[in-house]
Structures are given as structure tokens and as C-alpha cells.
Amino acid sequence: MPVVHFVPFSSLVQPTLWHELTRLKLEVLRLSDETVPLTATYSAGRTIKDRNTGQEVALGCMITAGGDGFDKDHALPPQAVAAYGVLKNYNTIDEFKNADKKALLNQVADEIWESITTKRDTSALTRFLVITYADLKKYKYYYWFAFPALVAQPLWEIADEWKLASEAFSEAQLSSIHDQFNAQPRAFFLVRPAQTGTGVDLAPVEDYTSFFANISPEARTVAFLDPSPDAQVPGWPLRNLLAYLRAVHPSETDTIRVI
């Protein structure tokens, strides 16, 4: 069976991030290189049609960070979800270039793993790291993003070819998923046939055991907001979601249906 591959995140930094970092550097951080929380956002991947060739062009698996990301309570764009990370700003270009990226990356990965095994919390599954250096005299900014992912052993495999959602769900069920997601966007959630009516019920992944009680395995679905524009290659968030499910529910997740 083919191995599941994942599209990595690509960072999109808005100019407002540098404006706010400059303010923080001058007024708050000064010479401190302590990490500060930063919230980024992502939404469903999409393509656009090339007007010359008529072909669909992928826009990338984007995650966006702006100046409002330093405010954890800021409003998110419509149909987008939050990814919570940390920013570490260095005082010199040499400190930035010589930063121990592996150690910093491992620290964030450990935080993700702890959130899975100790808290059973999915909010940290897309946790990220960004290190920066702000040359305020020359108005130059240097940065490096990292998105830790937990590697599965053995690797996940596709039991069958990727299929259209319409082959697994009725039109009424897909409309139900769409309406409920629009009302309350979530990065990760569970889906089961509605207890009443023709739609579906949704629930947080943390409710896996109670939500899927008395639900046959073939009727259980795990869903995530996919930032990948490629229908055959899911986006980066799925990697850590699968790691969460295997760690927390090992006896029930040998096979998982994902939408």
C-alpha cells in the first residue's frame, strides 16, 4: 500500500508582524531574547485557474502570521483556525545565525508530545517556532519558521485510493458538515451519522471515546481543516493529529477514515 505523504506548511508573513515586533523590541523586549507567544492562522487549501492555460494552480499550504498574532484573543479571519506558536527574537545577526535550531525545534516538539500524552489536548498539534533578528537601523528583518511533526513508526499507509467525500457521505451529510463548520470552525473534529435526521454530528477530537461509543468503526470519521491544495496529498496538520490518535487511542486507530 502507498505511504501517506504530507504537504509542509509555507509561512506567509504580513508586514504588520514586523511593525509590531519593532514596537515590542523597543518597548517591551529590549535586550531580552525570551520567547513570546504568537498566533498564526490557516484555512482550507485552494487553487486558482490560470487564465492563459486554463489549468488549476495550487496556492500552497499556507500559514499566515501578522502583527495581531501577538494578541492571543484577536479575531480570526472567516473560516480560518488558529495555530499557536512562539517567537524568539535575537539581539544580533550572529546570535540569529548561530542559534541551536535543533534544540529549539526539539523543545517545541516535546511540548507537542506532552500536550498529547499528559493533557490529551489537540490545541498544540500545530504548534510552531519562529526565530527572528530585527535590524532596526536598516529596517531589515530576518526570520526562520519551523513546524515540528511527530514521525509515525510504522509509516501511515493508504488502505485504498483517495476518494471524493461525496462517495462516502450523502449530499445532506456534506451540507451538515459545511454548515456546522462555518458556524464553529475547528482545526480537528469528529464526525458520525446524526442520531436524528439525515445529517451528521460533530464533536471535538478530545471526545473520541464518548462520541464514538456504540458507533461502528466504519461509521467513524476523523476530520481536519486541510491547508493543502492537493487532493491527493494532505497538509501538515494531519501528521500530528494521527500521532495524537495513535498515542491516545492505540487499540481503536489501526485504521482511520479521514476527511
Automatic annotation (TrEMBL):
Name by which UniProt lists this protein: Ubiquitin-like modifier-activating enzyme ATG7
Entry-linked InterPro entries: Atg7_N, Atg7_N_1, Atg7_N_2
Organism whose genome encodes this protein: Hericium alpestre
Protein family membership: Belongs to the ATG7 family.
Pfam families cross-referenced by the UniProt entry: ATG7_N
Record key words, sorted: Autophagy, Protein transport, Transport
GO biological process: autophagy; protein transport
Domain Ubiquitin-like modifier-activating enzyme Atg7 N-terminal: 5-259
